[in-house]
Amino acid sequence: MAWLVLIVSGVLETVWAIALERSAGFSKLVPSVVFGVAVVLSMLGLGYALRTIPVGTGYAVWVGIGAVGTALVGMVALGEPANLPRVLCLLLVIAGVAGLKYFH
Question: Which CA distances in Å does 48 have to 54, 64, 75, 79?
């Protein structure tokens, strides 16, 4: 259960990162509210998961999911460059996250 909560919390990190950018410095209400709700839920989930998953592993997985998710949204939906070096670097992050889970 802790791993599932950690994965969902990592996805919520992507949600709050994108909402933060869309809030334009908290000047837009809806993205600001989405940011607030997502960041609280993401942190609560991370805290729950860290009760059973070691902090080094849990935090790295959480950040990795959030970073890869945010970068993918940027490339797919926000017009950020999706070149080969960027994609390869994201694959390395994914491999690192998978390795942390596998060797846990």
Answer: 11, 18, 31, 35
Q: What gap in Å lies between CA 50 and CA 3, rounded to an integer?
A: 9
The helix (run of H) or strand (run of E) holding residue 92 is: helix 84-102
- pTM for the full model? 0.90
Q: Which two tokens stand for residue 87?
A: 């994609």
For 75-94, what is each residue's pLDDT tens digit?
Answer: 999 999 999 999 999 999 99
Nearest alpha-carbon partner for 75 in 45, 84, 99, 53: 84
CA neighbor of 63 nearest in space, from 23, 103, 7, 102? 7
Q: Which residues contact 72 (CB under 8 A, 6 or more apart)?
A: 90
